[in-house]
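Bumping with the actual sequence this time:
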Amino acid sequence: MKIVASHQLDPAAVDYLKKQGFVLYVANSPNPSSYIDQLKTADAFILRVGVCDSSIIEQCSHLKVIGRTGVGYDNVDVSYATKHGIPVVITPGANSRSVAEHALALMFACAKNMKEADSEIRKGNWLIRDAGKAVELAGRKVGIIGVGAIGKLVAQLCSAIGMECFGYSHSHNRAKVEAAGCAYCENLDDMLSECDVITLHVPLKGNTKHLLGVREISLMKQSAILINTSRGAVVDEKALADALNANRIAAAGIDVFSTEPITMDNPLLHAKNTILTPHSAALTKEALRNMCVECAKGCVAVCKGERWPHIVDPSVYDVQS
């Protein structure tokens, strides 16, 4: 069987695929149309970066499964794939620790004013130490929007350093929030107005696009910090940039953007008090290995006719049968 990957996989995943008898083609391109001839003869497609829409899927009559190295699937037309009996494999939990640690690192960097301190000391400005902007996180309230595998770990890490954790579930699942060790917030507006740090851990769906817009950001404390390691479009980037530039909130740590790679006209590139990273929260060596291996295992299982549990829409198995 043949498997096509948009980009290089971890060596452990490559070894696994070879042992399972798969021939691997690595495109090293975010544009599937540029290697569509390879995809047309593929049994499986692992998409690390890029978009797999209906126009790609419909040309690939041999395709049995699409794999995503992560939990985000907004770049795959899941509905079209499911309609045609093609499961979309994801890797829940494989990168949770990596993303949770990155979110905490952004919190610390913002709270300690590290970006400005680093920039100024390189200019010879030793007196930046007296800026008076750094704060302690212990005792602060952190609002965690989305308390799945990643949000739960964020709560554990924040609790460990003495922060008070509050959780909001878009599905209003109180039990899930409390199981994550957070105080339950029924109302998002209340969380935004009361918490010192807001951190986002929700998927991008129709009801989460611009979940934080002009109105929601205006509810946040002037001293608040916003962290986003979920999906860029969950936040209205212009509204966030405007709030930062007007000192309506204190700082933001952002790992994800509405358009990726980020375009040079993105307002966050020029916003005050921001720390930006290139959607790299999940790309520790450990997480990358875990995601690639788990995705490879899922794709192999589906190709062999097994019902792999970690797929986006289980109803696809009804289509197949």
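The tokens above came from a reply further down the thread. Residues 2-94+285-320 form a domain with the Rossmann fold fold (CATH 3.40.50.720).
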